[in-house]
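Duplicate of #3305? Posting structure anyway:
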């Protein structure tokens, strides 16, 4: 639950209680809005840096382009707003949630002239799937829900309404006692988690579904592919099946929220030895080093606050 910290709203920082919208806001009814999920980390030297700020802000604007929403700010203004908010709220390790939505105006479907509103919230947030999960791994199921296909879903955009698919899959998984759900695409290939990309390891090679598939090509995913190559580990982006998940030596999920989370069990089948595997551990270690400014080669991924 976010602490009640001030929020950046339409160009100014306002008290938490004032960051509201009317029930006739268009996005509440039809889901045409866009969001991002970003994290900042404090390094050993005490400085806080936003991880891959530029890429996240770019994706926010790309999502808005796909959604035909004209943002009344530039990418530089939104990046500055994020940094200003973190300084204002004296935040170090935290999660950052920008949201672009259509406010009041007409409630007719097209609503081309409704006011476009932008808010950014940020709060201290621990491990999304729990601290224990980072070491012990999570139990997941293959969902009865299918990842919406690319004819009906803008897979490269974080559009609010598209997340109904994720919310229902996650609720179903939790109701059945799992931590997370893995969605298959319309052809039956592995797509992703409800808010994470998925990797598997087999015979020392790392595999992940191709970025052209029905999945959000996550910024963490791209970062991990780079870190794996830096570590000299072979990576292959290709279509993966459910059986390949079951037979993997290691499986892990990744995303801004979930960071790098090992999977210890899928549909009642133990993954590998049932513990975090050595390649997962290496990638996890390298990821946390990079986000905390301990990887000189990847210093460019950090935007200091
Ligand atoms: C559906 C989905 N897949 C994957 C990801 C991981 O993306 P990223 O690493 O950019 O956070 C997210 C989170 O944004 C997501 O919502």
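Output from current build:
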């Amino acid at each position: 639950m976010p602490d009640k910290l001030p929020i950046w709203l339409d160009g100014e920082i306002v008290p938490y209680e004032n960051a509201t919208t009317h029930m006739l806001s268009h996005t509440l009814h039809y889901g045409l809005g866009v969001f991002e999920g970003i994290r900042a980390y404090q390094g050993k030297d005490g400085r806080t840096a936003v991880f891959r700020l530029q890429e996240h802000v770019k994706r926010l604007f790309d999502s808005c382009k796909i959604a035909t929403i004209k943002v009344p700010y530039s990418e530089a203004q939104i990046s500055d707003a994020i940094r200003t908010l973190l300084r204002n709220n004296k935040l170090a390790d935290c999660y950052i949630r920008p949201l672009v939505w259509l406010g009041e105006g007409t409630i007719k479907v097209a609503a081309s002239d409704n006011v476009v509103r932008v808010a950014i919230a940020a709060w201290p947030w621990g491990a999304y799937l729990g601290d224990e999960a980072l070491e012990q791994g999570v139990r997941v199921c293959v969902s009865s829900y299918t990842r919406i296909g690319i004819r009906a879903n803008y897979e490269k955009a974080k559009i609010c309404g598209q997340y109904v698919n994720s919310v229902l899959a996650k609720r179903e998984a939790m109701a059945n006692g799992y931590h997370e759900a893995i969605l298959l695409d319309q052809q039956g290939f592995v797509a992703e988690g409800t808010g994470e990309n998925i990797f598997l390891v087999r015979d020392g090679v790392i595999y992940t579904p191709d970025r052209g598939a029905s999945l959000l090509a996550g910024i963490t995913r791209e970062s991990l592919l780079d870190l794996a190559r830096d570590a000299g580990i072979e990576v292959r982006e290709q279509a993966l099946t459910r059986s390949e998940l079951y037979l993997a030596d290691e499986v892990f999920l990744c995303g801004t929220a979930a960071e790098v989370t090992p999977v210890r069990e899928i549909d009642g089948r133990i993954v590998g030895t049932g513990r975090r595997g050595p390649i997962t551990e290496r990638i996890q270690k390298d990821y946390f080093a990079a986000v905390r400014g301990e990887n000189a080669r990847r210093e460019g991924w950090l935007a200091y606050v």
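Confirmed duplicate; merging threads. The longest helix spans residues 53-66. The two ends are 23 Å apart (CA to CA).
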